[in-house]
Design goal:
single chain, about 375 residues, mainly beta, four-stranded antiparallel beta sheet, 1 helix, about 50% strand, globular, signal
Amino acid sequence: MKKILLIVLLAAPMFVSAQKKGAKTGPKVFDLVIGTYTGADEKASKGIYVYRFYAERGQSAYLNEVETSNPSFLTVTGDGKFVYCVNENNPDGTGGVSAFKFDKQTGKLDLINQQKTKGSPAHISVDKDQKNVFVSNYGGGNLQVFPINKDGSLGQANQTIQDVGRGTNPDRQSEPHVHSAFLSPDEKYLVVSDLGLDKINFYRYKSSKVPSLTPADPAFVSTAPGSGPRHTTFSNDGKFMYNVQEMKATITVYAYNNGKATEIQVINMMPPSFIGTNGAADIHITPDGRYLYASNRGTANEIACFAIDQVTGKLVYRGGYSTIGETPRNFAIDPTGNFLLVGTSKKIFVFSIDKATGRLMQNREAIDVASAVCLKLVPVE
């Protein structure tokens, strides 16, 4: 049983916005659902963990956990009733995907069923209609669509799209490596990053059809050779798309319109003076749309902050914030905009966000979950 952990803020009142009496506010209590890498070590994580997170006070409390192999990435349905995770490696070298029933009040997860994937998966996402989940197989270099049944279980994949080719880096790009699939804000398109081919593929999406994905026109955009596109996010108004590239730790900004992306900027996550190894991972925008953050592993081990020009969508570097030598992967910004939580190799660190400047301040306490790879916040209220 995990101990209940209280996250003590260094200067919490400074960053919590006062609400007017009678004003409508969003949820402030969330379930933090955590995907991890698992292992035989007694100190290693065992599966998916659930903590209650209080976004006004920045406090957290352990709720529940369920054992499952390498749930390195997960997604939660819009109604909060189901959690789907990838199982990155099976004994036979392939991977799988698991469906769980989720109780938001207790944090309990009950396994419904599992399906095998055609490769080792690295990412999973779900549509708002709760018709399909999209699984990106890094090992195997393909994208798969799994239909969701009425009871929340997953059917066998009804569409597999195989990428073909290689990139310019012989060590990392000798074959396709599909790393993520994100729906556009209107869910008319699916945006798929292939790290191995330096490509971002676009597919038209119709949830009621089988197959549900067809190539868009144009079908893809290319990133710089050897850059390795990984994750994507969109501006709050949907007019701009941002893709983080793992191998060069760059972010490409695109003007976006109805499935078409036009490159307008490429910006480095690290200052020119940086000497070391990059390993960019994740990218998110604050609820107010003013700041973008991206994580960088390697020898950098920090969260980079960028201000977003509200007219052009371009980014301006505002600085980096250390994760104390630990490897930062996926992270989440709570919907109130008060906190940024980042999963690392040993713990989940919690940063307070200064909404005026984008500055991050690390809290004294952290959430004691090792090898945290994916964080999702689910409203409880």
